[in-house]
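Notebook, bench 3.
Goal today: get a predicted structure for Restriction endonuclease subunit S from Asaia bogorensis NBRC 16594 so we can plan the truncation constructs. The sequence was checked against the plasmid map this morning, with no discrepancies at the termini. Length recorded as 399 residues. Pasting the sequence as submitted so the record is complete.
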Amino acid sequence: MSAANFLKKLLDGAEVDWIPMGDERVGTFTRGGGLQKKDFVESGVGCIHYGQIYMHYGTYTHTTKSFVSNEFAQKARMASPGDVVIATTSENDEDVCKAVAWLGDEKIAISSDACFYSHKLNPKFVSYFFQSEQFQKQKIPYITGTKVRRVNADGLAKILIPIPCPGDPERSMAIQGEIVRILDSFTELTAELTAELTQRKKQYNHYRDQLLTFDEDEVEWKTLGDVAKFRRGTAITKKQTKKGKIPVVANGPISTYSHGQHNRDGETVVVARSGAYAGYVSYWNQPIFLTDAFSVHPASNLLLPKFVFYLLQNKQRQLHDMKKGAGVPHVRVKEVEQYGIPIPSLTEQANIVAILDKFDTLTTSISEGLPREIELREKQYAYYRDQLLSFRKPDAEPA
């Protein structure tokens, strides 16, 4: 059954009113205040800082990440169980007004740059509504500020929220609860997949460490400079590029723009040379135009390029630590050339690469594996969320 048909059957002819969120029939917004990170203590009364809503919390939570003392809580703005806490400032329009429903048993302190919504609705229903397309469209007129974007409590109070069966609170809560049940199932599935992905990444790192660890007397060791050639990229600006689809690879994990020519082809191991990503290792198996970086070309009779990539990737932190220089830091070729590497047989290298490739596909590929599955589930969730919370469109925009 489609989301639209399910919603129609669920409502079964019941009316839906779009009511301002600040209407006394629905709820009230209260500004947080006073709480700063310096007020955190090891244990005590729970609290939510507005920045944590972006970094730590999802749609709802039963526990808080941080605490304040009992003395501080007595003078703080406190949200009650069932309230929805909203971050009212952000660096961008998309994120501002991210919300989390507080489902714990005690009151909690709320920081400034946040507010909390006390209401007569299902807390999760409200929190899901804050994620919906309908809410996102309605908040735009109330966003103010330049560098820091803000929506105040007065603006939020004017936004319309759909209330099914407003004249029958019991049935209204039942409908809200059924919508929440469906959206929860998508949220939980995504959370399970994300947890599995995190575990697989840990496994991947463990196996990579094991597969790329050799005793000194187990295989021959050489410095990378003895068994590979290093080639610097060619300086080019975006204005100098010609129309084309060849990635320009510089000092980061992704290509910066495209070009009509290439200066590397086939398997290429790249080390970023300067900037914040200096030392970052990437692998390419296609034509590229290499600029602010250098490429590593191992002797084909001794080393496989992909094996060298995995060796360097496994030492990513050490490569980053090689950065030197004030202002824009650099990684120097001479230092990377001195890096010692093991040289097992080409057959063993190929076996190691095959194993690590499988793990890499599972944990990082956006077209295969768990990341792809998570992406699909998130899109499916967003579709059902917007469909289930669409109801009948309000006749007029909020004032």
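The longest helix spans residues 169-211. The longest strand covers residues 114-119.
Flagging this for group meeting.
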